[in-house]
Amino acid sequence: MEIIILPTPAEVGRVAAAKIASVVTEKPAAVIGLATGSSPQGIYADLRRRVDAGEISFAQARGFALDEYVGIPLEHPESYASVIARDVVAPLGFEPSRVRVPDGRASDLAFAAKEYDAAIRAAGGIDVQILGIGANGHIGFNEPTSSFASRTRIKTLAPSTREANARFFDTPEQVPTHCMTQGLGTILEARHLVLVAQGASKAAAIAAAVEGPLSSFVPGSALQLHEHATVVVDEAAAAELRLADYYRYTYDHKPEWQRFA
């Protein structure tokens, strides 16, 4: 993996956004995997700055969200369909019909999950997948012990995940217990993975994913299997990395032809 350690959360967002922008500049009709939550907000803010400045356009791009709650109304402000529309589609200028979110309201959830994977394949696959990581090491909503071969499917959210997401709801009881998420096998098929993390609460998960053993107990460790994974973290999230000095040295001495920010 390419590990980039930066001083601040704002720099994490800027550098990760530069990677996304480089993909879209080279391929205007790129397929982008879209994450929700707090981790990628800096990416979207910097991409909006670039869009407003006329540097890039997402008008031809396509998007596929990582996950969605099961059973939550489409119009609920915390459904990921609403979050993606509000925080990504509108500010970045995506054509709404070219952005899909898993259907957590389908009458046949298993079929909807399989159809979602089929839609990604029909679009040509994901060019760059944006990821965050949970404190328990989950990516997407692939909780610990998720299979590395898993496809888009229904998952039961861990209590710690529901507790972490309760800040978005009026009461903890309102947080759904189930979700539909791209599986680890689905995620690993993207051509490039860009994972961001900020803050000390993510330090243990980052160290386990990057430097720990390959284990389904830490779903984020699946990135070790990918040929093109970039992990961008701030100093707080990098605090438990044993080879942090080497990662800084490697990034500082990256040849110009490898640089994107």
Jot down its keywords.
7-stranded parallel beta sheet, 8 helices, globular, 261 residues, 3-stranded antiparallel beta sheet, alpha/beta
Structure description:
- With 261 residues, the chain is of the alpha/beta class.
- Helix content is 33%, strand content 16%.
- The protein has eight helices and ten strands.
- It has helices at residues 9-26, 41-52, 80-92, 109-122, 159-165, 184-188, 203-211, 244-252, and strands at 2-6, 31-34, 62-65, 67-69, 99-100, 128-131, 153-156, 178-181, 193-197, 229-234.
- A seven-stranded parallel sheet has the order 1-10-9-6-2-3-5, sandwiched between helices.
- The longest helix has 18 residues, at 9-26.
- It is globular.
- The model has no long low-confidence stretch (mean pLDDT 96).
Question: What would you say about this model in short?
Answer:
The protein is about 35% helix and about 15% strand. With about 260 residues, the protein is α/β, with parallel strands linked by helices.
Topology:
Elements: E1 2-6, H1 9-26, E2 31-34, H2 41-52, E3 62-65, E4 67-69, H3 80-92, E5 99-100, H4 109-122, E6 128-131, E7 153-156, H5 159-165, E8 178-181, H6 184-188, E9 193-197, H7 203-211, E10 229-234, H8 244-252
Parallel strand pairs: 1-10, 2-3, 2-6, 3-5, 6-9, 9-10
Antiparallel strand pairs: 4-8, 7-8
